[in-house]
Write a sequence for this structure.
């Protein structure tokens, strides 16, 4: 091999090596893209809800209402039979089985939807209105095009008869898609079309609030002590090693801590955002202390010396001068730590925040789910409707995370001073 | 009640603060001493001395109260019954008493429970009133001590600063307390577990089937054959193997991609590529693990199954391959940014020396920069491994539940973290060997990650010192 060939070979090796790097980066970016694409393509349809237009006559006799001003009577009237009888008339049927198949196209909540409408429009008594009622999950998925129609009937969730009804309704313009407000306002449900992540958002909010209130003051104080006051001794070294190691302990271990200590020893209420928040706070603590220390360290000694020179005490120096200057870095570290806590699932599973909670939690002491736990719960469900709900929850979660992380970056860039 | 008391100290110490701030001048005049610090420090001094002890009393009371009430009721039941009542029975009766008191008791009502509930009610009301009394007495005592100190011309600022320093110190000890809490809660249950099941049966046993642990009450005397059967149910080798296997698959994905992208960012990339590429890849680090789990379970797992079918291979939809691959993707940014850092801290002089003798850029990286950075890279890979074995949600959602001892990536395996979650989610009895087994698994996991982290941090630190 002559010189020329050897050099050519070396240059080719150089090019190959660079190509490996580019391939590696593109692979990583491909995964980012795939993940985001998958979530968005699955999740966007969850933001709309399929409704069926049903003409309903609020017949006073059928409802059993004699006096429209009697609150009890209006509240307890038989809306179930009213809607049932009028809805099954919208398509011909010959036997009980077909009758059942018709009513199954409506979500089981139709009686409440009719009731809520009537309570707001009492003047409609005896009149016929065309009411929009939520369709069942299967019908909803069919309309959104997530159900292939060409597979054999016994493997489909909708029968040929029901598909016939769908086509008929579609032709008559009885099907409408509206914005899915249930998704934001409702808690969990066994029926995908009635399930929402409203409860989970509040649960997440409460636990992150508890987490912030506990972890931020303690972490800031610990960082100030270690950076500004701690003497160089064995105890300080031990604390330092401890904090670094805690930051790398798997999150599930904190769940075991929460279960073993908070629930079993202190007997705090299970499944609540309070316990979740405390567990997350213990986990977040070292993740805030580390950036807080770094930004305290970045404040130049001249600031401290200046304050001490004009007669400030050490505590005054630290709290009047050093801590305010270190605040941007500390805050951005805190926000990033909280963002991690927001996405954390495993510890919450162990302290029982996986309960099936229909009610929207009103305080940190109520049982609740959280956004990531809701993702876990729904992803275990078999119904097709929950897949899009799960993806929508992930979109929501990612949205919050992006907002928090950009806030952290903004806080640092805008307020942090560079010392040269 | 607690909330009311908390709000009370908050408001009271706040009003004390503003009141004393404005009145301290008159106070010092009437007592004829000169103020040694600014008025606000006297105000801080007073309100801290008022609020902190009362707060501590409240917290410790709330921690101690349930235990004391429980023990009082236990001793009452014990003294009323003729024969010895075991600790577990007492606990059970206490649960029933509490349920009866709360009004959601279902089941057979007995005289013991009724009288116990009466006593419980009485004790609770006594507890509340004594709590309030002690709370206010503490406030009065400590506020008057503080007032007396001020009258004796104490240096208020120094007093306040001392308190602040002590509070700062206590906060920094919180980290140690957390670790201690972890170790104790894990050890406590694990020791109970290892009294029933031999430690070596657990560590070296090859069959894991906790559902066999039918004996829920470990305090009862077990026959030798039952103990043997239990020991055979809790062999953790399949879990350790499954964890290591999935982590290995993850590393096979993450190490090459992470290393090469880290090297590219550090050595080749233009500022623009760095500026946009790095944050994009770091999105992967910010995505919650449950999202990866969902992705692995609903997209990657089924994809591999379909792909396998087209080659005539049988692929489990919960294959180790899917879980490991997705876990690897999660770890990529971790390795790439650490590699980037490490390579950036290799001194430029080493590169210049290599270029000077005619080496190309890739030769310099392969023969000079990489060997110099190797300890740091190894450290970061160890950190990544510790993250992989502690990762929970991906494996819970995408890996299997059955403990298979296999090295076929297409079959399903289970991991330590999956089993912990499977055992502990839902209702558990705290006396069953199964629950305790989860804590024993947690302890092994904690110990393993601790050792890995310790070594990794050491290596990284040593490496940094080398070039500083």
């Amino acid at each position: 091999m002559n010189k020329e060939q050897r050099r050519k070979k070396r240059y080719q090796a150089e090019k190959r090596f660079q190509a490996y790097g580019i391939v590696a980066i593109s692979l990583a970016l491909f995964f980012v893209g795939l993940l985001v694409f998958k979530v968005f393509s699955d999740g966007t349809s969850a933001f709309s809800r399929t409704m069926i237009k049903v003409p309903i006559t609020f017949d006073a006799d059928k409802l059993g209402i004699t006096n429209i001003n009697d609150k009890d009577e209006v509240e307890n009237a038989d809306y179930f039979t009213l809607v049932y009888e009028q809805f099954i008339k919208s398509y011909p049927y010959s036997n009980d089985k077909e009758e059942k198949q018709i009513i199954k196209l409506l979500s089981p909540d139709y009686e409440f939807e009719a009731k809520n409408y009537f309570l707001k429009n009492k003047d409609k008594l005896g009149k016929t209105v065309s009411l929009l009622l939520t369709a069942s999950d299967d019908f909803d998925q069919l309309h959104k095009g997530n159900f292939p129609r060409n597979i054999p009937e016994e493997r489909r969730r909708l029968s040929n008869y029901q598909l016939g009804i769908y086509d008929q309704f579609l032709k008559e313009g009885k099907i409408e898609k509206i914005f899915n407000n249930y998704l934001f306002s409702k808690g969990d449900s066994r029926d995908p079309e009635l399930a929402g992540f409203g409860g989970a958002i509040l649960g997440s909010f409460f636990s992150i609030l508890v987490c912030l209130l506990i972890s931020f003051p303690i972490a800031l104080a610990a960082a100030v002590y270690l950076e500004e006051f701690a003497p160089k001794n064995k105890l300080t070294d031990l604390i330092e090693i401890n904090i670094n190691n805690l930051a790398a302990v798997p999150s599930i271990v904190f769940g075991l801590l929460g279960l073993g200590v908070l629930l079993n020893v202190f007997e705090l209420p299970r499944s609540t955002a309070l316990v979740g928040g405390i567990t997350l706070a213990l986990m977040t603590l070292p993740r805030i202390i580390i950036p807080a220390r770094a930004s305290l360290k970045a404040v130049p000694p001249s600031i401290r010396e200046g304050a001490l020179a004009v007669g400030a005490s050490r505590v005054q120096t630290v709290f009047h001068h050093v801590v305010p200057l270190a605040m941007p870095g500390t805050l951005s570290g805190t926000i990033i730590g909280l963002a991690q806590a927001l996405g954390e699932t495993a510890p919450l599973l162990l302290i029982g925040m996986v309960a099936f909670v229909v009610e929207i939690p009103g305080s940190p002491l109520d049982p609740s789910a959280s956004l990531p736990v809701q993702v876990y719960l729904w992803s275990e469900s078999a119904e097709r409707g929950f897949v899009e709900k799960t993806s929508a929850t992930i979109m929501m979660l990612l949205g919050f995370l992006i907002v928090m992380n950009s806030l952290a970056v903004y806080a640092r860039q805008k307020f942090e001073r560079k010392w040269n | 009640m607690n909330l009311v008391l908390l709000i009370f100290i908050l408001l009271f110490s706040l009003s004390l603060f503003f009141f004393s701030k404005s009145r301290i001048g008159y106070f010092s005049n009437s007592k004829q001493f000169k103020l040694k610090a600014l008025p606000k420090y006297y105000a801080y001094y007073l309100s801290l001395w008022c609020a902190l002890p009362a707060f501590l009393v409240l917290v410790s009371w709330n921690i101690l109260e349930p235990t004391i009430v429980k023990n009082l009721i236990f001793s009452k039941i014990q003294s009323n019954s003729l024969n010895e009542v075991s600790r577990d029975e007492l606990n059970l009766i206490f649960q029933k008493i509490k349920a009866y008191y709360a009004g959601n008791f279902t089941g057979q009502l007995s005289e013991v429970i009724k009288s116990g509930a009466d006593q419980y009610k009485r004790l609770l009301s006594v507890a509340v009133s004594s709590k309030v009394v002690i709370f206010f007495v503490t406030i009065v005592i400590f506020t008057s001590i503080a007032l007396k100190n001020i009258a004796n011309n104490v240096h208020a600022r120094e007093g306040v600063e001392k308190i602040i320093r002590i509070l700062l110190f206590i906060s920094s000890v919180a980290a140690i307390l957390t670790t201690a809490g972890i170790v104790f809660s894990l050890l406590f249950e694990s020791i109970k577990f290892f009294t029933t099941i031999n430690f070596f049966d657990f560590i070296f046993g090859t069959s894991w089937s906790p559902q066999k642990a039918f004996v829920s009450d470990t305090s009862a005397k077990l026959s030798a054959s039952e103990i043997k059967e239990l020991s055979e149910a809790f062999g953790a080798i399949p879990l350790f193997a499954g964890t290591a296997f999935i982590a290995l698959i993850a590393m096979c994905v993450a190490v090459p991609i992470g290393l090469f992208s880290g090297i590219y960012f550090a050595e080749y990339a233009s500022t623009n590529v760095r500026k946009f590429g790095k944050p994009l890849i770091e999105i992967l680090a910010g995505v919650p693990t449950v999202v990866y789990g969902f992705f692995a379970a609903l997209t990657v797992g089924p994809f591999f199954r379909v792909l396998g079918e087209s080659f005539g291979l049988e692929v489990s939809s919960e294959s180790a391959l899917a879980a490991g691959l997705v876990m690897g993707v999660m770890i990529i940014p971790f390795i790439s940014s650490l590699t980037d850092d490490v390579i950036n801290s290799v001194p430029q002089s080493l590169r210049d020396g290599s270029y000077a003798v005619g080496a190309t850029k890739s030769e310099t990286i392969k023969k000079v920069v990489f060997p110099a950075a190797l300890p740091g890279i190894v450290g970061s890979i160890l950190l990544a491994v510790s993250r992989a074995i502690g990762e929970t949600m991906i494996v819970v959602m995408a890996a299997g539940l059955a403990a298979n001892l296999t090295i076929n990536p297409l079959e399903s395996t289970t991991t330590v973290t999956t089993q912990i979650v499977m055992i502990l989610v839902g209702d558990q009895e705290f006396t069953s060997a199964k629950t305790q087994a989860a804590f024993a698994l947690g302890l092994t996991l904690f110990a393993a990650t601790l050792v890995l982290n310790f070594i990794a941090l050491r290596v990284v630190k040593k490496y940094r010192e080398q070039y500083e």
Summary: DSSP finds 18 helices and three strands in chain A. The mean pLDDT of chain A is 88.
